[in-house]
Fold these 3 entries.
Entry 1:
Amino acid sequence: MSENRREDPEDAQATPVEPPLDATAPHGRHEESGALTSHDAHKLGRTRAASTWTGLVIGIVVAILLLIFILQNLDSVTFELFAWEFSLPAGISLLLAAIAGALIMALAGGVRIIQIRRVAKRAASGNPPPDANPAG
């Protein structure tokens, strides 16, 4: 009964997992490379395609919920910005505000990534960063 016990992937050691013995199965090239480890068997379930598919499904669900939200909030709202005055449906205006916020956060994150890459490139080349002054 303990043979059927499933180990937690974090607790699993890299112990070989023997493939089932089947005399009738054809021998493929993967069988010549040796037994799979439990770590390798766990990695087979997560691929880039699976992650992309999951992200796509989540994106579709969010888009459907967003569409429902916009369609339920079609009441017109008047906005004043400096000298301009315009009316938009409430759902659309909240969507535009969320997009603007996401773009601002993406811009801030992009600037930070560029800063980190510059520091890493300088550290790899052996040059100290400009603010690291050993004399001061």
Entry 2:
Amino acid sequence: MKVSKKTEYGLRFLLALAELGEGKFMGIYQISLRHKIPMKFLEAIAVQLKKFGMLEVKKGAGGGYKLKYRPERISLLMVFECLEDATRKDYELDGDISSNQKAVSLVLNNVIGDVRDVLEAKTLSDIQGEYRNLNESLMYYI
């Protein structure tokens, strides 16, 4: 399965906001610089995530973006459905189809369902746990 840069950047953006802690806002510029995500992409992604109801926006000094929900309530499926068109559809065949085509369609729809189930089960909190584990393993003590 191919994941677009848009979705990768979206997940990284949400992870950055999750790491801020509850109730804290951060501007796109700071996130773009800190996490090396192109500003242009980030602005478009933020608009989509806000429309989808995952972000809150505060304008003015001390403003920026924050998560609307706790990380454990944001499934990867929510993010994929917001940023990727392909996850919303089943594999469809039009017209008079053969049993060969129908068999392929049935199997592909089962696979799509399985992928959706995995994406639904994984949350932003799971990514946050991996991120923290990686950072702990990189730390060294003097």
Entry 3:
Amino acid sequence: MKQPCANCPFRKSIAYALSPEKAHDILQAITHDKAFHCHKTVDYSESHEGRVTVESKLCFGAVLFLENTVRGGCRSNVMFRFGLISKEFELNDLRKEESVYQSFEEFLEEVVISLLKIDPTIDFSQGNFYVQTVQHNRALKVRVNLP
């Protein structure tokens, strides 16, 4: 069965330093029919933003995250449906996955906590962090309570 890579940012066990803006951009992309590619298949030789190439593959962690969080799962995203059609992954690979975040809130909370571990002086406005995104034409405002 297909698995997310060992250091996929959608895995619960991974400590990483995504900025809140980057996390927001990722959530915006995968909830608005945009592709999100595996960081191991993106070319970072010319820019820290990376460049998608013809060899780039869809992020399977993002696929499973959508399965966990969005009605219709990854099939709610046009680009991920193309991944199914092109056989990057198959229907029997799709499942609820406990090693991947179960909610937008859980994902964003870990982003903030990871940043605080790197720099405990970051001020998130009195202990709360908000991210607004749109999920299938429905506003989603996420509040993360910090330790």
